[in-house]
Amino acid sequence: MSKKVAKICKLQFQAGGARPGPALASAGINMPQFCNAFNDATKDRAGDIVPVIITAYEDKSFDFVLKTTPASVLIKKAAGIKSGSGSAKANIVGKISLEKCREIAEYKMPDLNANDVEAAMRIIAGTARNMGVAVEGME
């Protein structure tokens, strides 16, 4: 007999830095148990933001799935900027190389809706363009 799903939550935490709080309280799970499991699973990704999808069941148990770091965070890190542009079309705030775009696309492939790396690179380049970051070598 399968467990009855009570709630599904999409949250983001610093790798290895999940702590009990209001975001987890709304999920209705055992917060210390989740924090320990999440922190153990993400200790090798220190410094990254890790999106997580938590499936909470009625008996207070849970499952969670880790996702890859958001593309915007990876692009900001690669370009060496603190934030994207407020007006992306008028103000370019940074540049990344085509190789760096490919590296980000290969890392993000499991979470992107793309069949090959070139399509994933176009998605990453579009995200970069919307942030005011130019990708050298792409129109």
Automatic annotation (TrEMBL):
GO-annotated biological processes: translation
Domain of life: Bacteria
Entry PTM: One or more lysine residues are methylated.
Domain Large ribosomal subunit protein uL11 N-terminal stretches: 10-62
Domain Large ribosomal subunit protein uL11 C-terminal: 67-135
SUPFAM superfamilies assigned to the protein according to its UniProt record, in alphabetical order: Ribosomal L11/L12e N-terminal domain (SSF54747), Ribosomal protein L11, C-terminal domain (SSF46906)
Listed GO MF terms: large ribosomal subunit rRNA binding; structural constituent of ribosome
Assigned GO CC terms: cytosolic large ribosomal subunit
Keyword Transmembrane helix: no
Pfam families with a match to the protein in the record: Ribosomal_L11, Ribosomal_L11_N
CDD domains: Ribosomal_L11
Keyword entries, A-Z: Methylation, Ribonucleoprotein, Ribosomal protein, RNA-binding, rRNA-binding
Self-association state and partner proteins as the record states: Part of the ribosomal stalk of the 50S ribosomal subunit. Interacts with L10 and the large rRNA to form the base of the stalk. L10 forms an elongated spine to which L12 dimers bind in a sequential fashion forming a multimeric L10(L12)X complex.
PANTHER family, per the entry: 60S RIBOSOMAL PROTEIN L12 (PTHR11661), LARGE RIBOSOMAL SUBUNIT PROTEIN UL11M (PTHR11661:SF1)
Function description: Forms part of the ribosomal stalk which helps the ribosome interact with GTP-bound translation factors.
Family annotation (HAMAP family): Ribosomal_uL11
Family listed: Belongs to the universal ribosomal protein uL11 family.
Protein name: Large ribosomal subunit protein uL11
Organism for this UniProt entry: Holdemania filiformis
UniProt gene name: rplK
